[in-house]
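Model it.
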Amino acid sequence: MTIYDWIVIGAGITGSALAYELSKQKFKVLLLEKDVVPNNATVYSYGGLAYWSGTNQLTRQLCQEGIELHRNLSEELEADTEFRELDLVLTIDKEDDPIQILQNYSQFAVTPELLDLQAACELEPLLNPKAIAGILKLPHGHIHPQKTAQAYQQAFLRLGGTIVYEPVIKLLGSEHLIQGVVTSQNTYYAANTVVCAGGLTRSLLKQSDIVVKNYFTHAQLITTPPVDFKLRSIIMPARQQRFALEATASEIEQQSLWDRLDDQPIQSILDAGAVQFLDGSLCIGQISGIITNPNVKFDQSLAEVKIRQQVAKILPFVEKIPGNFHHCLVAFTTNSIAVIGNVKNWSGVYVFNGFTSPLVFVPPLARRFANWVAGKKDQIIVQLNNDCQ
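Modeled.
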């Protein structure tokens, strides 16, 4: 019987990065993923690296570490993550005051540049000038999220790691000690198990009566095949509603709604945006909704029409181009930048999940976490671990 040092549950960008970093520390690691063909939030991510978005000393430090790591990650992993520097264009609605919107970004590490209508359309000619009052421009990084996750996985395998494609059914253990996991086909044993299962983390832990402040939204978006025109930037609304949506999670928990697995929407928003990858394909969206049942089914045609109509107000060309509708769970937390660390009153089980800005924060925090469990001091992980508990 093989006993691993670490089992990592989930092979999105979070679990893949963490498995790689743990293997670098000479741990024997098993990475478990439920889908042979990836179907998670990493696959449908915009790929943006918001390294400008730090609002305090901790997040500014992690943003800086994250972008510096990404600039060298392709070389380290020996695979192309498609990293590039790319402008982020935040569109300001016609009815909004551009100066007031600019003031809303005053707390960030980088202050955006306010561009009037003419300058906005010179920067991004595909914008609809009739729909906006101007834009905010910010420096931004961009990667191909799934290719980055795959690069981490291949580097992990070269270090001697093991990847198995089996869905985890439950954690193995009792009396506040986790000793491994049970999948649909096997039982695997480990000294430590870390859950990086995105929006499924909460329900998986709940089966063992483990409760952490980890939540999820249902994201709905459209991806397209390569098109013959080019966006010069990532497009997002300056007034994003997703963060206000996520802020309601604690109120919902106080009402015990998260554990009822209800199909009824509690709240839903649409942030109209688009990004184009290097192969010319687009990601368009997105609707974000809080529904406590992770397996709820959606009216695909209705959601797709709604996304196209809203995004087409800003980018008229998107309304008619072919594309495929997708749905995924997006994990988040409300009390910190992520849920990281060992679970209070339990042994052998950790959480590494719910990142507010995963593509920037995951690489540096995966490295710090692996160093920490290998015995090296790290005040940032200690702080986040306390937040986890």
